[in-house]
């Protein structure tokens, strides 16, 4: 069992690239002090090499550190019924969203601090093969919980499917460059049901977290998903983290039946298992030696 | 449920709306007038003005409910907010409504508080409803009320009875209200009531019809009642009633408490009475006396409250820490670069760090509120109610004999039962049955041992229970028809009485009362049947024959031999020298004259002269007293009562009486009188019952009846005694000088019908009567004979006392008419004097009671209750110190103490009898010094002793209890000792004694002693008693236990627990007390742990969320975790867990000490649990933390596994702590887990948009599809509980506590267990002897232990000879030491008994001691060890005194012990042939030990007698 557990994590491959750009040598150093509304976006490219091929489906994450998505007031600052497509909440968001409830007397959709602080870096991955950059298809659907996408988050309803019309009368969150109905070109990934948005709205438990960004599917059985070799990561650097000493990372990882790559549980099991075994032996010994004594001995007075 | 029919016929009425209203009304009334006017409700017009006056009187409806449907909610809430915790939680819930600080959804935060309040409210409602039901039941009892319209008594409900109504009551009915007695079917206008329900007194009380109504010729007609009664306002003084009745004629008659029938009492022996209601309902004295149960706070709860305060402190620290942390966290980002995740306030401005931390502090209080266990109090209440229920269910605490079981009257101190350190017990009725049984007597120096009687009594032990079992079923008994024939009547009557017997109070009380009634109104067969001693019976018959002959020949009585004369007088004295009332049990109609007055009936000299006219049998003619009240009716009555009267009623009765006896006495050679047998019929029916003030009086009368000298009637001025051959003799009672505790005797002055002499019969304590005897000259042979008789009697008295009998001396004085006249003159003067009348009467009595002629003495046994010695022994083993506080005299108390093994014969007894505070101080000082010196030696010795291997002493060396000391103190000395200046010394002395006996103590002293111990020693005290005199002590003690025995309900009413028998105390304390304590202690600790562990999880999280007060656990889980998910298992464990099974707890009382020492819940345990909680929460937090570190997990998908882990850990923790597993335990644990998952799944699937901010839609469902969830949920509890599990296992295996051993014991097979237990007990006695030995000769003890050590060190194989040698060496040394001790001790000790004893006694003692020493020596020499003992040399010393003997005796046992120990150690370490020799030695020494202790006991038995003789000896060391 333990071995199986170890293998579960053993075949998980992962790659982590910190692109915060605090080091002067980093290509993204120039973008360190971007602000929310800087146009055009600061871009930077980081090249990296994969030593081993990623055989199965690859998950692409962005990771943030020192980012307190679990702050009490931050967590509260959302309106679930607005996100669920409730029209009255759309125009009259919950008080919890304050002070990101209205902007210039127009209700913000989506309201609240969480939405306002949505991660807006764009990451693109290229495979560099003999100096040719082949873009790698990043699938942006299927990264959110199915229930979130289909039950919890819904666009407002109304006549027609024109999101722009549906969101009429609302304004975009302060920090967003575009309104919510322009998050994506595909209609089933736009508005409140944009999966990047949904993923962001699921607030992380700990200040160091990662969020699923894209999927890279294995195309066929003959070729690994990501071959070993050179790659480059193109970043549209919009999201400022330097002011609170945050870090940004891009993570590529495969997944086993156990989940992502985290050896802790495996180590813990092995350690605890051996301790228990050792203690069991000791206790057996003690019981054998002293246990009988007590049954025959009487109560000392 | 309030307004009744407002029949405005008479007095207007308003129903009480609870106490407040009542109180208000009473206050208002007070302003108006100080008296109450009552008119007949039948007079319609006259009542009107009263109504306008506005005096509102309560109707008879009983309403004990607190709430009405309307007032319930506000009133209950108001009461609940008296509890601080509730206020706190409501405060927190309200805090949540403040937006700046709120942590949860405000509505949700209210939920737990509301839930708790609701649970309590439902409990209150239920209680109130049961009260309502019992009220209703009582309100709907029926009684006969006179109706104006129908002109007769019609049946009405109690609640309809109003003030001014006329009520008619029949025999055995319960009185519905306070009624002024206006008519009675009794010719004397008397009515008998039993007040047992009210004040617990069991004897019948008389009530008198209001005088003027007594004189009415015709039947009492309520319609003609036009008088107005003016009386005092309702009050709760049962013993007082004042008022007067104003007749139409304008005449006034005073009303006294003798005229008032009190609600709740039962009419007895009176066919029919009628009266007018004076006070009704809540204004009756019974209800005004009825106070609600007291609230006691248990020790555990006090300790718990302290820990709750610690929790508050921890909470505040945690909050403060978080607040500062948050301040710093905010501050680090500075003013400018606010991070995106720090949300500004609604106005868009950021809070300053300081303000943020202040807000956060409040938020944290809300978040961490769970640390203060909100459900703790409710859970504890639930657990206690369940515990009480289970105690109630215990069959072992049910007494078949009285059909009563244990009652818990205080619900909240069950666990105190497990921590009792001191027991204060009453003696009479508590340790003893309070059934006085005549055992033996001595008449004119000849002892009649009544062996048959003793045998009969022994027989009662067995068949008693059988009979009693059969009795309630109503079957007639045929087992022992002749002796128990009257029992069938009793049974019939009993069923009658119980049927009709209802009670005003609650149902349970009614039940109790009915039980009581059948036991108090009748004496048990044991007390009534006395098998006469054949020799004495013969003498009585002979005497009677002589008398008959003499009477028929008109010879003077002096011809009788002095001995027979004494016998005759003895029985006459037994029969008449008392205040016993004679009643016939069956029908009140058959009532035998039973009026008696305590006042001397001879009122004037003229009366005296008139009475002493020669005619002997015409008392009827002059019976009318000087009172002007004499009426034709009473004249008629007196006429009836004379012997010459031909009233069929009374003579028939007497004849039947005779037959009853004749049937009974046939076997004793007594032939029934001629001519009377013809009047057959049912012979048993006329059985007389004797109602006595004290049970020993009744016992003596029954005893006399056994000798055919039976009391058949008593009037105020004459006593009828039936004698064999002679028929009924009427003794004219001239005076009765009642018993008082100063004189310690009572006397009657009668005129002897045969001799016409005036005789004084005195009955009293031997110590008093013996000094009042006529001094007899030693010259003439008669005087010599007298002297001989006296000394013999004294000897017998001493013997009786040793047997624990209550002794009474019977004496007589013959007065000449002149003497009497002379005395009478002064006596009447004394009576008529106004100033210091008491004093003069006392003097007068003293003048009469002198120069007495000793007739004999009686020994009455107050039988010990079943199992008392065993219970005391067992309780003592359990480490309880038992004090007996009794009102009895010292000798009796000491004897009973010996009988119930409270004092041991090998114990040193300190007796404190001081005449003044100064002597008391000196005595205490001396005793203390002496004891101190011994004690200090003992501790030194204890220190050395504890070094010996595998032989831990019974008491830890630090224990202040010296096993060998007993303290006896009398009331007066106790009063001195309780002075503030001396109480410390007294206590210091008393706590070193194993048992303390306080004699002659008043109820107040009893309570003072309890209070002293409770306050000064900070010990847990338990007081147990059965009578009204114990009430104060029961109330003062931490735990008050009442015995629902002979003396009625008062003690029970005041108690927290009521048990039927003393022996039930054993199980109540050792088993239930222990269980309740250990369960509750564990539960409380677990509660603290659970909450701390849960809250700590949140606290750790604060480090990862910027101390922002956010929680990863969904608020629903957070709030309902305690309430629903984790509460059930702990409740089940708190109610059902049995750490050690009952049999083992009973068999090994030592286990009780865990409760006394608070082993289950010591202060450090709270902190241990807190640390464990911290550790476990760290594990439960950080395993998921590291597992999900840097992953895409969101807050609540991460928090839910943590909650699950916490739940698993908490339940498994409980599983480790649970000692017994039942189906309920399993199912509750599994249920809790399933409930959690079920709730979580439903909750998470319920609503996609609700429950902000968490909105955990589909979280649990998703988690359950994730293997990581299961992996974390498995490993975390394991890691978290590993240390505790390891600790428990190792500690249980390597260093088991006694309780754990006890648990193991229960797992063994019964045989092995029995074997182990006997071994244990043997070992224990050894320990005791050892300690005993140590305390006597400390130096010796240490020496011995050295020797023992040496023995232990010696190798097993060659040990035997060595051991023997060592022992011999030891013996020599020891002996040497003994000599030294003996030589040293005289100056060390204060006052040894022999110094005080008369020299002859001392000599006797000494010779006895000497003989026994030799005997012991012989025993020693018969040892297989063939060496001569150096004992002889010691013995030979001429001055080898008693003291030395005592000192040396333990030496024997000590050697025995040592040898035994060594032999057992040999057995243990090397199981070879040597052990055979060892055990052989062991046997021999054991025999020797037993022998010596027997000797000692014999001798000790003798000493109390001597000791009694020397009452004045101040300090006595036996």
Keywords:
A: alpha+beta, four-stranded antiparallel sheet, 26% helix, B: 1518 residues, alpha+beta, nine-stranded mixed sheet, nine-stranded antiparallel sheet, 53% helix, nucleotide-binding (chain B)
Helix and strand arrangement:
The complex is a heterodimer of chains A (301) and B (1518).
Chain A: H1 2-10, E1 14-18, E2 42-50, E3 58-65, H2 72-76, H3 80-83, H4 87-91, E4 102-103, E5 106-107, H5 113-116, E6 122-129, E7 132-135, H6 146-152, H7 163-166, H8 195-201, E8 209-216, E9 229-237, E10 247-253, H9 264-296
Chain B: H1 18-32, E1 35-38, H2 44-53, H3 72-80, H4 84-95, H5 106-139, E2 142-147, E3 152-157, E4 166-170, E5 178-184, E6 190-194, H6 196-199, E7 204-208, H7 211-214, E8 228-232, E9 243-246, E10 252-255, E11 260-261, E12 266-268, E13 272-279, H8 285-288, H9 299-332, H10 353-367, H11 376-393, E14 398-399, E15 404-405, E16 407-408, E17 422-425, E18 432-443, E19 446-448, H12 451-461, H13 463-470, H14 481-500, H15 507-520, H16 525-528, H17 534-552, H18 562-576, E20 581-583, H19 605-611, H20 632-641, H21 648-665, E21 689-691, H22 695-706, E22 710-714, E23 718-723, E24 727-740, E25 745-751, E26 758-764, H23 766-769, H24 781-802, E27 805-815, H25 817-832, H26 837-848, E28 853-864, H27 868-877, E29 881-885, H28 890-899, E30 908-912, H29 917-947, E31 965-969, H30 971-977, H31 983-990, E32 995-998, H32 1003-1016, E33 1021-1025, H33 1031-1036, E34 1039-1043, H34 1050-1054, E35 1057-1059, H35 1064-1102, H36 1115-1125, H37 1127-1136, H38 1142-1147, H39 1153-1156, H40 1163-1187, H41 1195-1217, H42 1223-1246, H43 1259-1263, H44 1267-1294, H45 1298-1307, ...
Parallel strand pairs in B: 17-29, 17-33, 29-32, 30-31, 31-32, 33-34, 34-35
Antiparallel strand pairs in B: 1-8, 2-3, 2-4, 4-13, 5-11, 5-13, 6-7, 6-12, 8-9, 9-10, 14-15, 16-35, 18-19, 18-28, 20-21, 22-23, 23-24, 24-25, 25-26, 26-27, 27-28
